[in-house]
Amino acid sequence: MKKIKSFLRGLALLLVLAVILAAWIVLPWPALLGAAVLFGLWMAFTRSGRQAASVTQVGISTLNQRIGASSVVVIGIAGVVGVLVALLAMGEGYRQTVSNSGSEDTAIVLRGGSSAELGSVLSRDQISAIERAPQIARDAQGRPLASAELMVAATVPLKGSKDDGNASLRGVSEMAYAVRPKLKLVAGRRFEPGRRELVVGTGAQRQFDGLEVGKQVRLGNQPWTVVGVFDSQDATASEMWADAEVVAATYRRGSSRAALYAKLTSAKDFNAFKATLAADPRLQVEADTTLAYFGKQSEGLTKVLRIIGIVVGSIMAIGAVFGALNTMFATVASRAREIATLRAIGFRGIPVVVAVMLETMLLALLGGVLGGLVAWLLFNGHTASTLAGGMSQLSFQFKVDPTLLWEGLKWALAIGFIGGLFPALRAASLPVTDALRSA
Amino acid sequence: MKYFHLIWAALFRRKTRTFLTLASILAAFLLFGMLDGIRTTFDQLGRNADGAQRLQTSSRLSFMDSLPLSLQSRLERVDNIEAVTHANWFGGVYQNPKNQLFTFAVADNYLDLYPEMLVAPAEREAWMRTRTGILVGEAMMKRFGWKVGQKIPLQSNIFPNSDGTLNWAFDIVGTIKAKDGKGGGFTDAVILMHYKYFEESTSYVDGDVGWYISRVADVRRSDAAAKAIDALSVNSPHETKTMNEQAAMAAQLKQVADIGMIVGSIMGAVFFTLVLLTGNTMAQAVRERTSELAVLKTIGFTSASVLGMVLAESVLLVLIGGVLGLGLAAVLAPIVGAASGGAINLPPIGWRSWSLGLALMAGIGLLVGALPAMRAMRLNIVDALAGR
Questions:
Q1: First-residue to last-residue Cα distance in chain B
Q2: How many CB atoms neighbour CB A351 within 10 A?
Q3: Distance, in angstroms, between A283 CA and closest chain B CA?
Q4: A383: helix, coil or strand?
Q5: Which of B34, B38, B64, B67 to mutate to test the interface with A (most CBs of A within 10 A)?
Q6: Which residues of A185-194 are buried (b: 16+ CB within 10 A; e: fewer)?
Q7: Whether A154 and B97 lie within 8 Å, measured CB to CB
Q8: Per-position DSSP letters for A283-334, written without gaps between them
Q9: Is a pLDDT exceeding 60 seen at residue B114?
Q10: Contact of A121 with A152, CB cutoff 8 Å
Q11: Which of A242, A266, B167, B289 is deepest in the core (most CB within 10 A)?
Q12: Nearest residue on chain B to A155, judged by CA atoms?
């Protein structure tokens, strides 16, 4: 009978724990803040709340006697949060870099069925047909703000290694600057049409060797001169730009182009633009806003990075939970006599439970802050690169932003909650007489 | 060894604490097993005896550029080259644009150069007979539930078919099995189609080849052969770049991500935490037993043997947790693979991971045991017994 009872109690405890954790994960921060305020009010204005506060105070003021064991909780949780935040920051940085490249009022047109620029081909006729669409904005001279561009993966030596990498070489015309207003020239000048000149992005400059203004690079067995550097804070910065005609001649692409970027008169006109293209029987093309296109490009890798982060974080969190349990059980055992004394002079179980939990959560909070801080110091702005879509190098920076730090803190507090709950219950259910007699 | 029961008893003196610590160690080594499996798989790619024999020749302009078919006979005449085959990237997609598959259009003799891809002789013959036939890797067959004899639609995200659309249809005529069952998601997850069918059907490819693969007779002179191949096309519109397959694969993977660096930093953080945690446990355990250790010394145990016992205890603790963790990772890897239908491929844990893991366990055990063991060794019997 007794066994069944304790089994049921354990089961109920697990259920409560699961519900609280689920709420913790699902609820947005205002609801959690509300809960915290309610808890604070309880502590300040009720009898048992005040009792809990004073027991907590005693526990915290004696923390430095247990500094070694307590720092294990802090550092264990800091490790989890640090790794988690760093991995998520990698995914977030990649996502932001790629999706920043798009906007709602710019459209990209590719051949139907092509998922990326590198596999797409548009003929000269198709391009002029698309450029006539009325939804494309015009400049002061009445020319459509549309840029037909060519994309090839050029082989260029990587920086700091003897291997070659794949650089995106974009063949463009003057219009390309007009459809990308965010892009700024930070050094040198634009390339001159008809010449073998390159303007390189800051990201490409970071990854590839010899992309300095005034230097020459060999692309497609011809020497090219770097004449300028641009920055755009997005995926475009990993590219090198040159005159489309020259690129087409070097890489034998004839008069075809890969994609057409067009500035629309307004974001609302995108559907009409798409309908115009679909109505033209000469065109078998697909249009997307660049925002949606680049979003799709980054979706897969972002998801994979997030899953890796969460799996690695979960396994580490399990380890940290056991570490916290260990420490807190030891803490409760070493304070058994003190706790039993409190119980003997009339303190209830609840304040004791709350006090132990609060102490653990405080340690967890410290760990979370420490982990987040370390991740931020080490990785915010850290540059990494990958093969975007398996095709050409894309450079991006880790982004440790407040949402990620908050997520890390949430993990830390959840670990502290589980790690503190069981020792807290043990503390509250210690038989008073035994505990007073022992040790 | 004769003190084993003593060490064992000391280890499980406080069961809760030992089990909680074991669970932490287990989690750390579970993670180690999974990550190191991935790292070694990437490390080993192409590094087999067959791979060392093969040279890969592609365009120097860009990996997307093609080479003329006429180059083949010239390659075959290069000194030290035994056999030459070629392949084209098809860019296959099945049903959903997310299901991008490794699909190659290859020459008829492609399989001769890849002895690690096993195809039953009858199926290979059927492939030679069927113009639209494809050979499909075992893992991919399983992933999509395909059967030999089935007709499947594939889309190419680059090449239009003869009707101008990107839709293609193929007949599955055989299965590619990986030699030793170790495909690692590469040799057992490809689709091979006929170059002839591909070249005739699409207007984009006109006697062009994506890359050449040649086998060298003498591996020691393969660098010279690679140079000789590149010399064939120097200053022509189709300059080539030749590397051995392993170097080519390593260079490609390094561009995707520096796997070793990422795994290294994660494991660094994990083990740093683990050392602190187990160190704390061991310190607690020794502190608690001060008087017992003093009794041991009183009845004649030498300081050295007390040191050894505490060290052995901590090494044993980490070993039990670590072996359980690595074992769990080994059991879990195929289960995860099966549960995800082959979409996630966790590599099996090889002897390299096991030996590195065991070395780490012993190292961490000694490290965390060192301080408490020194403390136990230096214990002054009189003070310890007096509880000072």
A1: 32
A2: 23
A3: 12
A4: strand
A5: B64
A6: eebbebbeee
A7: no
A8: --EEEEEHHHHHHHHHHHHHHHHHHHHHHHHHHHHHHHHHHHHHHHHHHHHH
A9: yes
A10: no
A11: A242
A12: B62
- Distances B373 to A129, A330, B309, B378 between C-alpha atoms, Å: 82, 21, 8, 9
The amino acid present at B20, given as its one-letter code, is: L
Judged by a CB distance cut-off of 8 A, whether residue A381 touches chain B is: no
Shortest CA gap A60–chain B (Å): 20
H or E element in which residue B168 lies: strand B167-178
The span from the CA of B149 to the CA of B171, in Å, is 6
pLDDT at A126 exceeding the cut of 80: yes
Which A residues, 83 through 142, put their C-beta within 8 Å of a C-beta on chain B?
83, 86-87, 112-116, 118-119, 121
Q: Do you know the residue count of chain B? A: 388
Sort A1 into a burial class: Cβ within 10 Å, 0-12 / 13-18 / 19+: exposed
A436 touches chain B (CB under 8 A): no
Query: Considering only CA atoms, which of B36, B21, B6 is closest in space to residue B347?
Result: B36
B270 with A327: Cβ contact below 8 A:
no
Interface contact flag, A153 B257, Cβ < 8 Å:
no
Q: Provide φ and ψ at B86, rounded to 5°.
A: -145, 165
Q: Which residues of B touch A87 (CB under 8 A)?
A: 266
pLDDT at B49: 61
Helices A29-45 and A47-61: crossing angle in degrees, nearest 10, is 100
Q: Give per-residue pLDDT as tens, A67-108.
A: 878 888 898 899 889 989 998 998 888 888 888 888 888 999
Q: What is the pLDDT of residues B272-327, one digit of tens each?
A: 888 888 888 888 888 888 888 888 888 888 888 888 888 999 999 999 999 999 99
Nearest to A367 by CA among A78, A36, A26: A78
Spacing of C-alpha B378 from chain mean position: 47
For residue B184, the model assigns a pLDDT of 55
CB B147 within 8 A of CB B140: no
Is B277 exposed, middle or buried (CB count within 10 Å of its CB: 0-12, 13-18, 19+)? Answer: buried
Listed in order, strand segments (DSSP E) in A196-251 are: 197-201, 216-219, 222-231, 239-243
- Considering only CB atoms, B276 lies closest to which of A75, A83, A390, namely A75
Is the separation of the CB atoms in B185 and B194 below 8 Å?
Answer: no
* Chain B residues touching residue A169 (CB < 8 angstroms): 62
How close is the nearest chain B Cα to the Cα of A324, in Å? 9
Distance from the Cα of B266 to chain A's closest Cα (Å) equals 6
CA dihedral A130, A131, A137, A138 (to 10 degrees): -170
C-alpha gyration radius of chain B = 29
Name the amino acid, one letter, at B384.
Answer: A
Nearest to A152 among B62, B158, B272 (CB): B62
* Facing residue for A75 by CB, picked from B97, B252, B273: B273
Question: A155: distance to nearest CA of chain B, Å?
Answer: 5
Which ipTM value was assigned to this complex?
A: 0.78
Query: How close A75 comes to chain B (CA, Å)?
Result: 7
DSSP 8-state symbol, B272: H
Residue A311 in this model has a pLDDT that exceeds 90: no
Which residues of A are less than 8 Å from B282 in CB distance? none
First vs last C-alpha separation in chain A: 32
Instruction: Go through A292-321 and write b for each residue having 16 or more CB atoms within 10 A of its CB, e for each that does not.
Output: bbbbbbbeebbeebbebbeebbebbbbbbb
Q: Which helix (H) or strand (E) holds B310?
A: helix B303-339
Which of B24, B257, B280 is closest, CB to CB, to A322? B24
